[in-house]
Each structure stands twice: as C-alpha cells, then as structure tokens.
Amino acid sequence: RNLPKSGAAIAVCNHISYVDPLLFTHFLYDNGRAPRYLGKASLFKLPIIGRVLLGAGQIPVERETSVASDALQHAIAFLKAGHLLGVYPEGTLTRDANYWPMKAKTGIARLAILTQAPVIPCAQWGAQRSCQRIQKSQSYFHAQR
User: Fold this and answer.
1) Which residues contact 138 (CB under 8 A, 6 or more apart)?
2) CB 122 within 8 A of CB 20
3) What local confidence, expressed as pLDDT, does residue 29 receive?
4) Per-residue pLDDT tens for 63-91?
5) Which of 75, 89, 84 is nearest to 14 (CA)?
6) How far apart are CA 101 and CA 93, in angstroms?
7) Is residue 50 in a domain?
8) Could you report the per-residue pLDDT of 55-68, keeping only the tens digit for each?
C-alpha cells in the first residue's frame, strides 16, 4: 500500500531464493507497477535467461569493472523517466544460514539521492523453502557408467 502508483521509485527487497525476482515482480505488478531490475551481468550471458532479461529491459551490472557505473547511469535515466526500479541491495543471495539480510551495497542510496526517488522497503519470506540453494559442487547431471 506504500508503493506509489506512478512516478519514480526504488523498491528494495531481501534476496533469499532464486525465485525472488519472479515473486517480487508478481507483487509489484499486482500493485500496478512494472519494475526493471539491476542484475549481475553473468546472468545476461546465460543462453535463455539472458535473452529474456535483455528483452525485458533489465539492467546488467558489470561488478568490479571500469564500466560498472554504466548500470548506475542507466538506472538514473530510468528513474528520471518516472519508472520503478527493483533492487536487491545485498547484490546477491543472502549467505546467512538463517536467511538474514547481509550488508547492503551503497548504490541504492546514491540512486535515491541523485534522483530524489523514494526508497520503498519490501520483505519476502518463504521462497527459500520452494527452491533450495544449489551448491557449486552439486551436479544434477551425472555421467552414465
């Protein structure tokens, strides 16, 4: 109910599961807003997911590079055009065993200051039970012997 029906806004949420973007987008759409997200650039390189993200106008973030600020400039332009930006301020899935949020990155504060867009805090819980974390060492495809 605190989500503005129009105008620039930054909706921030905790990130506890791989399905969070789908659930958070559903929530925002149900409240009359179509968000765009900042997302790590490696997701945009995945064969199917990358095409979907680019086609939906999501904003890739090249972390720890000289072009990382490009994402900030795209987000500023998007907000200045009066749109809603969805952000997971931790920048990744929480690594806390009890799913507590981790320390947020500073980009959201910079965006809010530069654009005067309100920051709308949101929280979600339960999605971590629907999609367990996949360990890098896990493999769901095993060679036949």
Assistant:
1) none
2) no
3) 87
4) 778 777 888 888 899 899 999 998 877 76
5) 89
6) 9
7) yes
8) 888 888 887 787 77
Task: Give the CATH number of the domain where residue 90 resides.
Answer: 3.40.50
Q: What are the beta bridge partners of residue 87?
A: 12
> What's the pLDDT band for 128 if we cut at 50, 70, 90?
low
Q: Which two tokens stand for residue 12?
A: 């921030």
Distance CA 72, CA 108 (A): 9
What is the average pLDDT value for the chain, to the nearest integer? Answer: 77
Sign, CA dihedral 139-141-143-144, equals positive
Residues 131 and 19: their CA atoms lie apart, in Å, by 7
3 state SS of 143: coil
Residue 137 DSSP SS3: coil
Domain that holds residue 98: 19-130
Look at residue 98 and tell me whether its pLDDT is greater than 60.
Answer: yes
What is the spatial distance between Cα 38 and Cα 60, in angstroms, rounded to a whole number? 6
